[in-house]
Specification:
The chain is an alpha/beta fold. The chain has a single domain (22-314), classed as Ureohydrolase domain (Arginase, Chain A, 3-Layer(aba) Sandwich), CATH 3.40.800. Helices cover 31% and strands 16% of the residues. It contains nine helices and ten strands. The chain has an eight-stranded parallel beta sheet with strand order 4-1-5-10-9-6-7-8, with helices on both faces. Strands 2-3 form a two-stranded antiparallel sheet. The longest helix is centred in the C-terminal third of the chain and has 22 residues, at 293-314.
Length: 316
């Protein structure tokens, strides 16, 4: 097979050379012969605490230059099965979330219509809502698999219905996801009220807390995710604050008691075979990431998402 578009050969050209694209993929705006496109969505004014995730796509792309085409843990050369490009960034409107939402949905529409799988790099978590709108227009309601320490199902925040704490409530209300086949994994940390997580459950979403994961173990939770998702097409959203701040200090709302980078890899790798039609990695905030480990984690998680698409195309 072999994809038409592949990364630059780092044995011929040093990794520190060239324009910063994800994994040194070609920056291509045409969708001909493209299976997967990495897309930056550098919007962060939906955030409620720290801002600066608008620089997340740039940081993830820089960190990704150390990645190589062969995923040894999964036993696959990604680009034997994928023609992948870096599609560049969608031009957002800083400070104006609803206008940005329109631009993101419009900017992603051609990818979904062409059958290309978009992997978005955020940006704060508010970007998932317009991604899901564009996804729905082609695929209908999808299963949400959401890794995060927060459920992001508030009805409003500071009296506003659109921000990084509300995207999945809006998605359920708009019929963009199938809640009966959707699951949120990793919720933890202090809450305002003991019923806070019931807001997500009342929407029909299944919520698995970090404490429940620790008790049951990752293999059991993976089995449960697969059972919940079934045969539906999947939108996977990964907030880097799913990781413990020791592994991802550069994020907007860090929560202690989280997961290691390796545990996050185990979760994504354990989902081989799911029908992934879109995904994002969000909330990387480089200003609070002095050693670039958060950007490296974001780049590595995106790499595992590319691998899921490659495995599906190989027939695994």
């Amino acid at each position: 097979m072999g994809g038409r578009y592949q990364p630059e050969d780092s044995l011929s050209s040093p990794r520190f050379c060239g324009v910063r694209t994800y994994m040194r993929l070609p920056h291509i705006r045409s969708l001909d012969d493209v299976d997967l496109a990495v897309v930056g969505i550098p919007f962060d004014t939906g955030a409620s605490f720290r801002v600066g995730a608008r620089f997340g796509p740039e940081a993830i792309r820089s960190a990704s230059h150390l990645l190589r085409p062969y995923n040894g843990s999964q036993g696959i050369n990604l680009f034997d099965h994928l023609s992948a490009v870096d599609y560049g960034d969608i031009p957002v409107v800083p400070g104006y979330i609803e206008e940005t939402n329109e631009r993101v949905a419009e900017g992603l529409a051609p990818l979904f219509e062409a059958g290309v799988v978009p992997i978005a790099l955020g940006g704060d978590h508010s970007i998932s809502l317009p991604e899901l709108r564009a996804c729905f227009a082609v695929h209908g309601p999808v299963s949400l698999v959401h890794f995060d320490s927060h459920s992001d199902t508030w009805d409003e925040y500071f009296g506003k219905r659109y921000n990084h704490g509300t995207p999945f409530r809006r998605a359920v209300e708009e019929g963009l996801i199938a809640p009966e086949n959707s699951i949120q994994i990793g919720m933890r940390g202090p809450l305002y009220d003991p019923k806070d997580l019931d807001a997500a459950r009342d929407l029909g979403l299944e919520v698995v807390t970090t404490d429940q994961i620790r008790d049951a173990g990752i293999p059991e939770i993976l089995r449960h995710i697969r059972q919940r998702v079934g045969d539906r097409k999947v939108f996977l959203s990964f907030d880097v604050d799913f990781l413990d701040p020791a592994f991802a200090p550069g994020t907007g709302t860090p929560e202690i008691g989280g997961f290691t980078s390796h545990e996050a890899q185990q979760f994504i790798r354990g989902l081989g075979g799911i029908d992934l039609v879109s995904a994002d990695v969000v909330e990387v905030l480089p200003a609070h990431d002095p050693t670039f480990i958060t950007a490296a984690a974001g780049a590595g998680i995106a790499y595992e998402l590319l691998t899921l698409v490659a495995l599906k195309r190989r027939g695994d």
